[in-house]
Design brief:
Strand content: 15-25%
Shape: globular
Order of helices and strands: EHHEEHEHEHEHE
Number of strands: 7
Strand order of the largest sheet: 3-2-1-4-5-6-7
Number of helices: 6
Helix content: 25-40%
Structural class: alpha/beta
Length: 213
């Protein structure tokens, strides 16, 4: 009997402003997150991970993959480029419609997905971003967390997407590492509580990650 999956989608800003230490720190943080999740038996059984990157275009960097099989090569960013978060949400919606197994009379489908969005700016395609939000909300995700990284990230725009917004004041390795550790703790909490309740109770973030309420 196959176990039910907990799909986790991560949308990562790879626009030109993420060059240098920010994207290096993101790559380090992702590897730390994977290591932490793989030590959690619940996560290892149920979590399937997908990564979508967005700059001047949105790309499915990692299709939905069982946690044990995930291999993440170093994510690169262009020299310059826009922040097409709207296009990333449109791609995410297409991936959700393709990936998520619905429950039937005979079998239970996937758990409701978790979504983490990280950006250091605001959507260059604001109209597409706003058009995609109601479509995404129709997919009934268990939790959407948006991360506003650095001083130029627009927290108010992200709040149109979700009321769970975290702020990173700086974009150094320690701060990103704290964020991804918190993501892994949140995913682990989701995988261990899957089925007990609908909403995922997020663990308290570390000091460098400010939860905006």
């Amino acid at each position: 009997m196959s176990l039910r999956r907990l799909p986790v989608y991560i949308l990562l800003d790879t626009s030109g402003s993420m060059r240098g230490e920010p994207i290096y720190s993101v790559n380090v943080g992702l590897q730390a997150m994977l290591s932490a999740l793989r030590q959690d038996p619940y996560a290892l059984e149920s979590v399937h991970l997908s990564i979508i990157t967005f700059d001047i275009a949105a790309r499915e960097y990692l299709p939905l993959t069982p946690l044990a099989d995930v291999q993440i090569n170093e994510i690169q960013v262009p020299d310059a480029g826009a922040t097409f978060l709207g296009a990333a949400l449109e791609l995410l919606i297409a991936c959700l419609d393709r990936d998520i197994k619905k429950s039937t009379a005979e079998t239970k489908g996937d758990w409701r997905p978790l979504l983490f969005v990280m950006t250091d700016g605001s959507p260059s395609d604001l109209y597409a971003f706003r058009q995609a939000i109601p479509e995404l909300k129709r997919r009934n995700l268990a939790s959407i967390v948006a991360c506003a990284a650095g001083p130029k990230a627009k927290e108010d725009v992200l709040r149109e997407l979700t009321d769970r917004v975290v702020m990173l004041d700086t974009m150094d390795a320690a701060t990103f590492s704290g964020f991804f550790k918190w993501v892994s703790a949140s995913v682990a909490a989701g995988s261990s509580s899957a089925g007990i309740n609908d909403a995922v109770a997020l663990p308290p973030p570390p000091p460098e990650v400010q939860l905006v309420l």
